[in-house]
Specification:
Length: 118
């Protein structure tokens, strides 16, 4: 499985961004896709995940109501729509994938930087 993330950038607080993760190399029906983020000096944490089929999203408490994960089955793309962004959302965002049977995420894309200015 190959993952290609994009869509990061600089945005003012209160603004929006949409991250995309293009997935290739495997049928994803038995996979869970996740978006993680890592700020300087902090651990990488999951912010949202979605089971590919059926679509079952989950969110970290810190982003509920502001971030929305979705996937386009026809294009094999996973999105992270980020609204009402805060400076504390500034981080490198990564997309990742694991099979339903895996305990850990085993496939990772490169990160995309999101910077939220106050």
């Amino acid at each position: 499985v190959q993952l290609q993330a994009c869509g990061g950038g600089l945005v003012q607080a209160g603004g929006s961004l949409r991250l995309s993760c293009v997935v290739s190399g495997r049928t994803l029906s038995n996979y869970i896709m996740g978006w993680f983020r890592q700020s300087p000096g902090k651990e990488r944490d999951v912010v949202a995940s979605i089971r590919w089929s059926p679509s079952i999203p989950k969110y970290a408490d810190s982003v509920k109501g502001r971030l929305t994960i979705s996937r386009d089955r026809s294009k094999n793309i996973v999105y992270l729509q980020m609204n009402s962004l805060k400076p504390e959302d500034t981080a490198v965002y990564y997309c990742a994938a694991k099979r339903l049977v895996d305990l850990e995420y085993i496939y990772w894309g490169q990160g995309t930087l999101v910077t939220v200015s106050s």
